[in-house]
Design a protein that fits this description.
Rossmann fold; 4-stranded mixed beta sheet; alpha/beta; 11 helices; globular; 2 domains
Length: 259
């Protein structure tokens, strides 16, 4: 449920188009629906601007499917199916289970193998004021970058990407200086030593959200080296999210892009 959905519901009651008992029926599972193994937050869009996102890792395929079914059912009843749905860190078994519960009238479920995300896109409205640019240092960082890109796009933003433009060949990045300067927010994804966000931050006057990845050799410590390098960036417009957290970076970028 979004703020507009709630206002519409109240207006229908005010005009008599909807009897109060039916309004209560629509709202009875709010603010959350208890599935025993999960409490699905139907108020998330109302509070934060986007529906609850499902983190797939650690859940069974059936659990993911039932959560998605709950989101679809409640949004169909209240908000006429306008919210996009996103499952991160999913696999093909989860996708098969989700496809079975989506049906014909709830949008098309897609599995994005590179990022391991499942999307059900039912609303292509752009609410972000500018463009979010997702930059990856190397090709091996693209899965995390793709998670960020998909998340930002489903949350109503114009998104562009620049891939494999790391500091080992800095001319590849500098060729795209104009695109970087036109961005309203930049998500910068890098592993190894995590140097790229500092370079990007020094070129632009907008927020740079750095995402360290677990890509690298032994002394990278599964992304800790990149994380520490980014936290110590000398570019003052750089902030950092957790290792491999493309979703978190995109969520923050979407908030900034709405301001």
């Amino acid at each position: 449920m979004t703020e507009n959905d709630l206002l519409k519901l109240l207006e229908e009651v005010r005009t008599g188009a909807l009897v109060p008992a039916r309004a209560v029926e629509r709202l009875k599972n709010l603010p959350f629906e208890d599935l025993d193994f999960a409490k699905v937050d139907h108020h998330r869009a109302l509070r934060q601007g986007f529906a609850e996102v499902v983190f797939g890792k650690g859940k069974t395929a059936q659990q993911v499917a039932l959560i998605v079914k709950a989101l679809l059912g409640r949004e169909k009843d209240i908000s006429k199916g306008r919210q996009n749905i996103l499952v991160t860190r999913a696999d093909t078994k989860m996708f098969a289970a989700v496809k079975r519960v989506v049906g014909r009238n709830n949008g098309t479920a897609k599995f994005h193998a590179l990022s391991g995300a499942i999307t059900i896109e039912r609303n292509q409205k752009i609410s972000g004021k500018g463009t979010i640019v997702v930059v990856s240092a190397g090709t091996s960082d693209i899965p995390v970058a793709e998670e960020a890109l998909l998340t930002a796009r489903l949350m109503g933003n114009r998104v562009e990407h620049l891939y494999d433009v790391g500091v080992a060949g800095i001319h590849r990045l500098l060729k795209h200086s104009e695109e970087l300067m036109k961005a309203r927010v930049i998500i910068c994804v890098a592993g190894m030593e995590g140097a790229l966000p500092s370079v990007v931050g020094g070129l632009v006057a907008v927020p740079v959200i750095a995402v360290p990845t677990s890509v690298g050799y032994g002394a990278s410590f599964g992304g800790v080296a990149a994380l520490l390098g980014m936290l110590n960036s000398c570019a003052s417009n750089v902030t950092v999210v957790n290792i491999d957290n493309g979703f978190g970076a995109a969520r923050v970028a979407a908030c900034i892009n709405r301001l």
